[in-house]
Design brief:
The chain is of the alpha/beta class. The protein contains 14 helices and 14 strands. The strands form 3 sheets. An 8-stranded mixed sheet has the order 4-3-5-1-6-7-2-8, sandwiched between helices. A 4-stranded antiparallel sheet has the order 9-10-11-12. The protein has a two-stranded antiparallel ribbon with strand order 13-14. Strand 13 and strand 14 form a beta hairpin. Helix 6 packs parallel to helix 9. The longest helix is centred in the middle third of the chain and has 31 residues. It is globular and about 80 Å long.
Amino acid sequence: MARRKNVLLIVVDQWRADFMPVLGADFLRTPNLDRLCREGVTFRNHVTTTVPCGPARASLLTGLYLMNHRAVQNTIPLDARHLNLAKALRQIGYDPALIGYTTTTPDPRANPGKDPRFSILGDLMEGFRAVGAFEPTMDGYFGWLAQKGFSLPENREDIWLPEGEDSVPGATDRPSRIPSELSDTAYFTERALTYLKGKGDKPWFLHLGYWRPHPPFIASEPYNTMYSPADMPAPVRKPDWQDEAGQHPLLDFYLRGISQGSFFHGAGGAATELSEESIRQMRATYAGLMTEIDDALGKVFDYLEQTGQWDDTMIIFTSDHGEQLGDHYLLGKIGYHDESFRIPLVIKDPEAPQSAGRIEAAFTESVDVLPTILEWLGGTTPRACDGRALVPLVQQGKPEGWRDHLFYEYDFRDIHYSQPETALGLDKDDCSLCVVQDEAWKYVHFSGLPPLLFDLKTDPHQYTNLAADPAHAATVATYAQKALSHRMRHAERTLTHFRSTPRGLEERS
């Protein structure tokens, strides 16, 4: 009898790549993630191909670049014609379960205009079986709290205020008002164990999503004081935020517009006003939220091991996007900085024990996850997919002809909570950028704004834009050509391998 094959896809939210102990964050304690890295392959140069949440998850779960799936911002619909991971898994006999969320706005052509899903940030992607949903209104979680006997405040989100009537919202080491045993992380973990314990001997796929370390940046006890702000890395930024703002009009817009309130429940003030002390405290809380997830994953890993499923299961750990975390005076996931796009990727392939503990430097992208899962389970990569399966890379090392650069995109058109398009005087279809980045250079091309060029060898933090320097005109031209060629190579190609002939329809390999 063929050995059963399970897949656990762990998708955390807003976890940036440099907060990984195996990649140098020795201040962080994540023993279960460390175990996964020891038994799997960790990818050092991995990016999400777009931000923020909705577009990033669309790329992760369709294998398509933003330029092709066109769910370009949170609240923008995902075209129903696109194949996604859930639908593809169903084609090979799996019933894909999902815990968490995908922040997907449905196709309005296939759904009535009064559908309540059009009044929220995004809902669940079609094809998944929700076994622990966390819709944007979080009703599932808050209902779970009430069922557990927790008395919810009138404003339910006040559970993430700092404990104590005299507390001041903002960066703090005070605990949140919700205990750790009732946190959203605990909720997702209970849902995961409930699902797994009901599966019996059937092969399974589970998308296990966690909301953390997403804001609000406040942790339950004991995670709120687990890390000292003094041990956190200092922010990467110039002495004055106005100096950063002068780099580019889009950066100037965000530096003038980002408030602290979206990151600390109830707080006010501009993100640029955060002191280094406050940023270090925010980072200490961020690290605490990560260790809380790690403790939760330990429970799931223990169950898989106790039931003999650890060696039957491919485990993938990744995030939807990163977090600026005060670097360049920014909060959130926006623009073109590495902190927003570089994310973790760890793959434990039980069929590749020879690769255990390897740190792989090859360039990888979030669009690679879908073909990796499908091919490991015996399926095939869809023709339209922009990613490449990482199974050969995990099992044997980097193949010949692997990509020589990273490619990622961002669309900054107006949405209801941010209006850069209006502020910059652009048409909505000119509010886009793409990045081509390798070991030496990072080139940022804008549809309607000036480009950026950074020398990564001499300027790793990307302070100095060389795009307008005549001495670097040839480099700008080379990387602009790379960007154009990459977009042409990956233009929509679902049917382009078919052709009609006198002998009838031919399908080219």
